[in-house]
Amino acid sequence: MPIYNLKVNGQSHAVEADQDTPLLWVLRDHLNMVGTKFGCGIGQCGACTIHLDGSATRSCLLQVSMVDDMEITTIEGLSEDGGHPVQQAWKEVDVPQCGYCQAGQIMTAASFLSQNNTPDTSEIRDAMSGNICRCAAYNRIEKAVAVAATKMK
Ligand code: FES
Ligand code: FES
């Protein structure tokens, strides 16, 4: 099997895997980074969202061969201590219910706010619309993104 050099959360990892192995499985099964979740496996739910060179991306749709030498950030690497403004806002608003979708929600919000830290409500809804929450915590998610935006100004 080929070996890929993945840069995850600032560290290099040599991973031996079939070229079409989804990045999601590599993160979870090879690197034991299980914060990134499997929801649908077909790009429809957002539970598997990570940052690829800073942009929110669905890791279930990425083959490991596509991300060799790219900068990958997972929820484990978003901050050292949970202190990213989005994570702070999530705690303040007490967003999670079951929690399953939350890593993907936070990664999407962090990428969005890095490009727009003065969003209006409709921009927040639009940015977060691809992340499904089966607990329907959407009002709290929207509120937390707005709180995080104020922290990132
Ligand atoms: Fe990737 Fe649902 S698991 S979008
Ligand atoms: Fe349960 Fe979103 S908090 S799926």
Describe this structure in words.
With about 150 residues, the chain is an alpha+beta fold. The protein has 2 domains: about 5-80, Beta-grasp domain (Ubiquitin-like (UB roll)); about 85-150, Orthogonal Bundle (DNA polymerase, domain 1). Helix content is about 35%, strand content about 15%. The protein is built from 5 helices and 5 strands, in the order ββαβββαααα. It has helices at about 25-30, 85-95, 100-115, 120-130, 140-150; strands spanning about 5-10, 10-15, 50, 55-60, 70-75. A 5-stranded mixed β-sheet has the order 2-1-5-3-4, sandwiched between helices. A hairpin with a 2-residue loop joins strand 3 (about 50) and strand 4. Helix 2 packs across helix 5 (about 140-150) and helix 3 (about 100-115) runs parallel beside helix 5 (about 140-150). The chain is globular and about 45 Å long. Bound molecules: FE2/S2 (inorganic) cluster (FES) (2 copies). One FE2/S2 (inorganic) cluster binds near residues 96 and 99.
